[in-house]
Amino acid sequence: MKKPVLSLSLSLLLLASCGPAPVATPSPTPTPTPTPSASPVFQGQTTLSGTVALDAQSVVVEASNATGTFRKSALASNKTYQIDGVPVGERIRVQAQYRNNPAVILSALVEPGPEHKEKTLSLDINLETSVTELIYARAAAQGRSTIVNTRLSDFTAHQGLSAYRSRVLQVLQEIMATPIDAIVVVVPQAPKLTQTIDEVLPLIEATLANQPLPSATPTPVVSGSPASPQPTATPSTVFTPVRLLIKPGKDLTIARNTSLQLWVAGLDALGNQQTLTPTWSGGNSSIGNLGPDGVFTPSGTSGSVTFTARFGSLSETVTVNVTDADLRELEIVPNTNITLSVGQPFELKAKGEDEKGREVTVSPTWSLTNNFVGRVDGNGVFTPLQAGRVDLTARAREFSSTVTITVESSASFLIEVSPNQPVVLPGRQQMIQVLGLDVASNLASTAFSFSVADPTIGSFISQDTSINGITPTAIFQASTPGTTQVTVRDVISNVTSTFSLTVAEGVPFITGIAPANIPLVPGQTITISGENFSSSAISNQVLFNGLPGTVLSATPTTVLATVPVGAFSGFVSVVSDGRKGSAYPFVITPRLDSISPVEAGEGDLVTISGQHFSTDNPAHNAVFFDSERASVPINVTNSSMQVRVPTNLDSDVQVSVRVKGQLSNFREFTLAGSSLPTWREDQAAPTSRSGAMAELIDGDIYVIGGYQSGTSDRLEIYDVSSNTWRTGATMPDQSPNLTTTVLSDELYAIGGSGGSQTIYKYDPDNNIWSNLNLTVDHPHVGAVAEGYNGKLYIIGGEGSSGRVVEVCDPNGGAIPEDHCIPKQTSPTRRFEAASALYNGKIYVIGGGDNTTEDRITAYDIEDDKWITSLTPMPKRLRQARTAVLNNRIYVVGGIDESGNASDGIYEYNPIGNSWRTLRRLPSGREGAAVAGISSRLYVIGGENSSGSTTNTNFRGTL
Question: How sure is the predictor about 98, in pLDDT bands with cuts at 50, 70 and 90?
Answer without folding.
Answer: low
